[in-house]
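notes to self, project folder thing:

trying the whole complex as one job this time. last attempt i did each chain seperately and stitching them together was a nightmare. two parts in total, labels are on each line so i dont mix them up again. if this works i'll redo the older ones the same way
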Amino acid sequence: MSTQPSRHPGLNLGEPHAEAHSANEEFVFGFWVFMMSDFIIFGLLFATYATMLGGQAGGPGPDELFELRGAFIETMLLLVSSFTFGMASLALKYREDRKWLIIWLLISLVLGVAFIGHELLDFHRMFDKGGVPSRSGFLSAFFALVPLHGLHVTAACIWLIALLGQIAVHGLDHGVKISLTRLAILWHFLDIVWIGIFSLVYLGGLA
Amino acid sequence: MSHRELSAARARERATELKSYITGFILALVLTLIPFGLLAFTQLSRMALFCTIGLCALLQVVVHFRFFLHITLARNKREDLQLILFTTLILAIMCGGTLWILFNLYTRMLPGMIP
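result (full assembly):
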């Protein structure tokens, strides 16, 4: 991929970011271990959801509750935000000025917030149709899985806002660079979890 | 608003990485549009749909790992890759076990729970 041997998951910053580049190896690997534990949590919630699919207790099922259009919009928002965050990583790596880094980060933030907003709207519509968590085992499993992902996205957005604040106050010091590298991993990882959600929950439920 | 003074090697690296992100984005987009499109506009059987959705999802996960998280098969990345593979093994045991045990139980005692 590149001439430099890569030292950790995600985009490596490379030699010009000497301090952040060498510190990243441990920090990012530690964060990667945390991501993998998150991966297990989501994996088991997927398994729980699959075992609860039949437990609708006469309540509304996937056909009545899910809308393909909403799922598609959310998927696109998250996929594009993953790409724009990649562009932010590249801007961090190769540009001296902060302009493009901030622009790409802001675009990612807006897309992330739009995703959360749209997801909340979806949940609201589900509630209107009687799809509340306490209605059936199926809905409890759904609301354990999907909003947990939404909560992760919310946390990532808050983290991004905090980092934008840090950039404004401290500038691009190596602490901020390391945090941005880790947030990039979280951001891309959450998009991977969403692949599982839209495939199994939404597409599988509507097929 | 100019680039950092990039050496030729660095500029080449940047071009490669930019291309890798764009390739990843296009692949991910196609792998998303296929299952959504099939579900919305065709009348395939459920089984065919499930298989396509599952296959596209698996491929898209690999694409994201490769192009966005930069997990490759290169030698220096083995530690990360091993961690993913080990996590996947643990998940396969726990998820597989959960599904096996519970659906076996449903078949024997609660046929109504089988979707």
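what i see at first glance: The CA atoms of residues 29 and 95 of chain B lie 28 Å apart.
need to look closer tmrw
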